[in-house]
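Subject: sequence -> structure tokens, single chain

Hey, anyone have a minute? Need the predicted structure for the following. Not urgent.
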Amino acid sequence: MSREGVAYYDPNSVSFIVSKENPRDVEYKVPTSFQYFITYSITISAVIIVAMVATAVIAVQIDRAEKFKGNFDPSYYSNRTTVFVIVADGFRGNYLKQNPEITKGITRLVKGDDQGLRPGIAVTMNPVFPSKPATNLVTLTTGMYAGEHGIVNKNVYDTHAKNFIFSMEYLERSPESLFKNTEPIWVTADKKYTTMVDNMPGNNIKINDTYPDFKNSVFSIPGSYMKRVKEVLNELDLPEGTRPDLMITHFSFSEVSKQYGPDSKEALDAVINADLAISFLIDEIERRGIIKYCDVIFASVTGTAKIEQVSYLEDIFETGSFDLSNPTNSSLLDLITVANHGSVVDVFLNKKVSKTVSDAVTSYIQTGLVNGIQSEKWKDKFDIYTDVDSVPHEYHFHAHDFPLALIVAKPGGYLLTKAKANYGQKATDGHVNDPEMSGVFVASGPHFSNSSTMFANEMSVVDVYSVLCSVMKLTPSPYNQGSLDKVSKFIFDKTFYPEPVPSNSSSESQSPTEPHH
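Reply:
Had a minute. Here:
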């Protein structure tokens, strides 16, 4: 047989020889015994490698399990506990009612399970005025109304410097002075506990000379829900004494809901992903055998509602019949700065208006806006407030540095400056007395009782700070405006002494990767 174009094994040179006369038709022929030797060698090596990797993984899991058995003892937790708080915005409370098939993880906190998770509570949680995410996230962590903590919307405008001094988009650049008269829960807890705060307003700012002990990202930095939960678990795995006792992370639903609508496929997909992440968190706490010691809270501060009608300030100005011949010939829209558009619009005098005519211009603008909004065309669409005393007392807005005019849309309404403004939203937040603005407070753990009826009670976002102080046995800050009046019956007001984790804990059998969903 000719060997042209054939690779063959030469036992004398212990190598393959290839004929170069026809290199494109090379056919490799290996003796059967040599082929078996190579095949078995590779197979055995692969099996050994896989076995070594599997052994290493099992060893790590056993080591972690043993480590946590040793760390989580009753004496350490006799006067403290571990609290997980997942704070959300844009998650309507009725998602749990209307979509039970995709909220099984959150509902698990209410119903409990057979792995040690206690049945908990679910109550409707109403936002403070204005029902904006930025405002209510700060209210939740401080126990203060917007008029006191000053974060009244996504953007905050300084009426004295006539400049934006705060934007939720660029929170890392915001001045510390904005938070000087506040005490977030992580500052209160710092006196006694180790804290982790992820993606929350103010977590990157030194407040009362204090930072959170751990902060993974500042507010508005994107991140998946599962990634945020895994970051929490990474901190949970730290040794006792360095591991956080209070862990707060943030899930945002507002942007996807506003872009596509609160009942859109995209919004419901976000709910599904968040629910899976929460279920995974519960699974991992159970796997570590520490669920008896942990309070797990899901608190949504706002909902969203569909935009039914868009209106424009320039139309309201026209309705108001402004006379600009005196004191200025400028276009009225050039005389104002609108800090926030949408359902809650705050109008300020533009910095270009000189002080000599500012009082007269202010009077013209306020009079025209009031006349316009109180006209037949607009009176059922908006409310307008031109000074702090005109704002209803129940809004608790009295201490805020008030704008030239505050315009609040009725449910379904949305206000832009002019018709040419870029508009593409399908939903918004901020409305007053709109059930779709309400969120939900769901909690399970040793400090919470069981309520058999979901949503039978209500609470306010401003009360969450008080709840956390009660659970962690902390003295609330002097700035706190919340109370336990509406939630005291759901909290065990006694020292908690948890039982030791049994040696046959479910942590040894629970899967570390698959959510219980």
